[in-house]
Amino acid sequence: MLFNSFSYLAFFLLVFTLYWVMPDKHRRLFLLLASYFFYMSWKPEYGLLILALTVVNYWLGLKIGNLLSEQPQKAKNWLSVGLVFNLGCLCFYKYTNFLLQSFFSAITYGGSIAHIKALETAQSPAINIILPLGISFFTFEFIHYIVDVYRGSKPVKSPLDFALFASFFPSQIAGPIKRFQDFMHQLEEKPTLKAEYFNEGLFLILQGFFKKIVLGDNIGLLVGQGFHNLQNLSLCDAWVTAIGFTFQIFFDFSGYTDIGRGSALLLGYKVPENFNLPFLAHNLTNFWHRWHISLSTWLRDYLFIPLGGSRGSAWQTRRNTFLTMVLGGLWHGADWTFVIWGILHGAGLILSKEWTDFAARTSWLKPLRQTRVWHWCGVAFVCLFICQVSIFMRAPNLDQALCLVGKFFGFGINGITGDVSTALLQSTVVYTLPVYLLYAWLHQRSLTMAKNGVALPSLARLAQSCWQSSKALRLTTSAMLALFISCMAPSQLSPFIYFQF
Amino acid sequence: MSTSTAENQNSTASTAEKLSGQAVENKPLSTQPERETRTDKSSGRGKLRFALEMTALLPLSILALEALLGFMGVGQQEIVRPDPELGCVHLPGKLVTWRMEGYSREHLSSAGLRDVEHSLSKPPGTYRIAIMGDSAAEGLQVALNETYARRLEQLLNEDLQAGGSLAKKLFMQEVQHNFAPNAAAGTSPQAGAIKHFEVINFGCSSYSTGQELLQFKKEVAQYKPDLTIVMICKGDTLENNIDVTQRGKAEPKPYFYLDQTGKLELDTSILQENKDKLSLDSPTNKVLNWLRANSNLYGAVNRTNFNLFLSDKAYFRLTRFAQDMGKRLATQKEAIAVPLYGVQNNRQVTLAVIKEFQKTARAAGSQFAMTLFPDVTASDKDWADTITAIKAQASSDNFGVIDLQPPFRKDKNPSGLFLQFHFSKEGHELTARTIKEFLENTPAKSTP
Lengths: 501, 448
Hints:
The structure holds 2 protein chains of 2 kinds. By secondary structure, chain A is mostly helical.
């Protein structure tokens, strides 16, 4: 069931109504059943997988919690068992074919070098494994749970609460990756439908639909056209395709997150924010503070720090950063393109850190570092870098990714303009994207002004006053926005990009 | 790596607060702001104000949305209205912005053609060619001047204006001998007297060959074309007759069938069954047709409805359920006389329609040719057999056949000739050149 479908809207409306109508004591169980229905509407049999993982991790949490104070070594052993179990499941479903294919590719390559015919013709057995939706996300939540219990957090006693944490449908398929302490705290407080949550939830859902349908899906049509005909792209086509994909993946993923967060808020729960204007990051470290925040903090807490973090030598820190990003890349997908994506991000982070340290040490650069030009040059560099690296996430193989990167810089292009750039000018994106960016800018500016105690301009104050005082204005604007979004949907429903991860 | 999400979360106030600038109120939904509640309780003026504001804002916001969609060219893909005879016809003068495959943004002509304006009467010295077909001929996927109809006119007139060699003049005489001489009509220019070529595009999305035959009788014949070229596509052979096992799902349009003697007959029973929907006189349909012609919002909502119906199972089931309930609740209608006939052979019906078509065209003073939509991958055996049968019929009935498959397959980039299903700009260009070449190279034959 896709968030951007009529089915989801009907499902959510029903869940929302029943949830708030029924007595409080039944709500958690109802939400759990709704979450399983949501998940099993895709493939009923995979409901058993998430159930099995939930049962095992619930039991492991209790076991580790009980052993921790008196038999810490045994607790550690059980933690290891839990990690192997969770990672084993993830690897089986996600990486089996990738590992087999890579292994057999290496064998055939070795065979061709050594002229061993039997090895040259070796073929990987085809194993039909369907990747369960959201497995990358909920296994990371389980790992976080058992590790945090081992680190001293109290395990969840109620199996119902734990199962709800594991399967909560607004964040089940593509995150954000929740922290169980936050979630359980909200459960303890017994969610109520607050005006604040209701308004914010509705707004987030509308914003999410706008990002996904009006922007992401329509930009996706151009990107699809570009990737469909990579060999014949012109220079402008290559730019539209590469930059377009970066925008597409942002609007797609942050749109999904907004709909999920909005749905959760309407049910009285808060799930963490995942994005904070990532394309305004002035360096790559800052970018990862702003992009897929729940993943980057997970990687920091459960990979980077356990690897040694930045406690060792500079080279160890670099090694840890690099390894974290490579594994983070592999987490996104079982393909060498994702490994390259991770390598580039790892290398980029290391170089970015080195450059920042160098600039800080160099006295003659100091006055320049204070300027806005320096800051915006950093922003431009990050955007350019992300555009290039993102190509590896979308391209079906390395050859095609390198082909597009080459064309982006003018190598092997087919003229200056072409079909994709023409299609951009004919698309609704030329109207909607600038309007959205203008809105985001004004919005950010007003927040900054409010934060600094600066009064808004009189026109903005008037608009704000009208907005606050007129319920009719809020209602009609929201209704028209919803209508507008439905009018802008492309012909085909398109799934969220992060569902495949 | 990120140091903390707290910083990011703290830096962003609640989104509702951001949007509205309101202070966050951590109160249950039922608790209204104090000031508002007091106002409501004291006089009910709040409700009155709300009602008045809604009355003013709702139409204003709909108009604003209408204007916005018009500016962006969204919801302008409505091109036809229901018609009691043909099933549907183009909306005259409609501004169409097409983005479903390719792109175009132009008005249909005042006569409802996907073409420039054409007068009904044929100017002296004009050789008129009628292009007929479905969406492939209509060509909304490319700009109007790139459709093969417009390109054919340009190519023929460029040739004529370039002085035209004797051979070309002879070609014209040959064309007239083979395709145009109709003394009875008395309107065709004499050999060598052609001063202008006029190509008129009558193509309309979703039309079957049978509908095109009826369109010719109703509309095209009035233009007195010297030559009628009909494009036939793979799907057309399935649309000329009803699949009697799926009668309930048949679209409201005219169908044909072969009776027991093999005679071609018209079946209008589905049109009759849907006459309420197709009627031009009912007030509801008048409003709907006005909306089709003038409202972007109607067009956009209609398209969303259509897309959801096709792609969303829940929506499909709910809509079908509502439709079934509507049908059950509707009053019993008068019985429609449904002609009784057995399962039809699609190809035989199509060939009979073509036979009738060329007879009708000739009777109206026009010569007749068929253009065969190309299957570049040669993957459809049924279509290949249909092509063979049409060619055989063309040979026996002496009408022209323009087979697009050889030139399309020979092209260095065959896939570039299509967008998804329809011709790209290059595909239209190649079609226009192939038709022109056909007219140039057809050897003289005696007309039947």
